[in-house]
C-alpha cells in the first residue's frame, strides 16, 4: 500500500519541495499550510508520517505535535524548523517528535530521514509482534504485561506513554545491563543523533516518577554514574 505523508508547512516553496520528494519516494503527499488545519486532517486518519514545521499560523508545531501524540496509535513525526538550538531540538523531541531537520536542508538528507523513520515503524511493528508472544515480567512488585502494554506497581496500574513503556520494556528485557543514553536512543527511539541525549534523561525522570516509590532513590531504573542506566538485576 502507498504510504501517505501529511506535510504541514506554511512556506509554499518548501512545501512543494517536500511534496515532490515524497512523490519521488513513491508516497502520497498531503500538503496543508496551517497548524490547526493540519491537525484536523491528521485526526481524520490515514496518515503514515507527519512532516511538521515548527512556526505555523493557526497552531504552532509544538502544539500540533502534542495533540498528535494524544491520539491513540503511533505515527512518526519529522519536525522541520529554521531554529537550530539544542533547546529547540529537545523541546520538539519532548513533545513527541521522532526526528528533527533544520532548514535549510538537502533533498538527500530529507529522503534519508523519511526512510529511516519508516524503518523505525517497521521495527516497532516487529517489536510489537515479539511483545505479543512474550511473557509477563515481574520484579520486586513491578509487573509488566507486554501483550496489553500495561504496568502495575504493587498492584496499582501506572499510566505510561508508549515511549515510556518501550523504554521500560527494553530495560526489563536486559536486566542488569548498563546502557548509555546514545544506546537507549538507538534502541528505543530508533536514532542516535548528537545532542539528543537530554530527551533520554527526561523520559527516565518521568518513568521513575510513575513507577518508583521514591524517585530520588530509584530501585528499578538505576543510574550508573558516568555511563548511563540499568534495570534492577
From TrEMBL:
Record-annotated OmpR/PhoB-type domain positions: 134-233
Superkingdom of origin: Bacteria
GO molecular function: phosphorelay response regulator activity; transcription cis-regulatory region binding
Functional summary from the UniProt entry: This protein is a positive regulator for the phosphate regulon. Transcription of this operon is positively regulated by PhoB and PhoR when phosphate is limited.
Positions carrying 4-aspartylphosphate: 53
Residue stretches spanning the membrane: none
GO biological process: regulation of DNA-templated transcription
Keywords, comma-separated and alphabetical: DNA-binding, Phosphoprotein, Transcription, Transcription regulation, Two-component regulatory system
Any single Pfam family the record assigns to this protein: Response_reg
Identification of the protein by name: Phosphate regulon transcriptional regulatory protein PhoB
DNA-binding region: 134-233
Highest classification ranks of the organism: Bacteria, Pseudomonadati, Pseudomonadota, Gammaproteobacteria, Pseudomonadales
Amino acid at each position: 500500500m502507498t504510504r501517505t505523508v501529511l506535510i504541514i508547512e506554511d512556506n509554499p516553496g518548501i512545501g512543494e519541495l517536500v511534496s515532490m520528494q515524497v512523490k519521488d519516494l513513491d508516497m502520497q503527499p498531503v500538503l496543508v499550510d496551517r497548524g490547526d488545519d493540519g491537525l484536523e486532517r491528521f485526526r481524520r486518519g490515514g496518515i503514515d508520517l507527519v512532516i511538521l514545521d515548527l512556526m505555523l499560523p493557526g497552531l504552532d508545531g509544538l502544539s500540533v505535535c502534542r495533540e498528535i501524540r494524544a491520539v491513540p496509535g503511533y505515527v512518526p513525526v519529522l519536525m522541520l524548523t529554521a531554529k537550530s538550538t539544542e533547546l529547540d531540538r529537545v523541546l520538539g523531541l519532548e513533545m513527541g517528535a521522532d526526528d528533527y531537520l533544520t532548514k535549510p536542508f538537502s533533498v538527500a538528507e530529507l529522503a534519508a530521514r523519511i526512510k529511516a523513520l519508516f524503518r523505525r515503524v517497521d521495527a516497532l511493528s516487529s517489536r510489537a509482534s515479539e511483545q505479543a508472544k512474550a511473557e509477563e515480567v515481574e520484579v520486586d512488585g513491578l509487573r509488566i504485561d507486554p501483550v496489553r502494554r500495561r504496568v502495575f506497581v504493587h498492584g496499582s496500574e501506572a499510566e505510561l506513554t508508549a515511549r515510556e513503556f518501550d523504554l521500560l520494556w527494553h530495560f526489563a528485557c536486559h536486566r542488569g545491563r548498563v546502557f548509555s543514553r546514545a544506546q537507549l536512543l538507538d534502541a528505543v527511539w530508533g536514532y542516535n543523533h548528537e545532542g539528543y541525549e537530554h530527551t533520554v534523561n527526561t523520559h527516565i525522570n518521568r518513568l521513575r516518577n510513575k513507577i518508583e516509590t521514591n524517585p530520588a532513590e530509584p530501585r528499578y531504573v538505576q543510574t550508573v554514574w558516568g555511563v548511563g542506566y540499568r534495570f534492577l538485576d
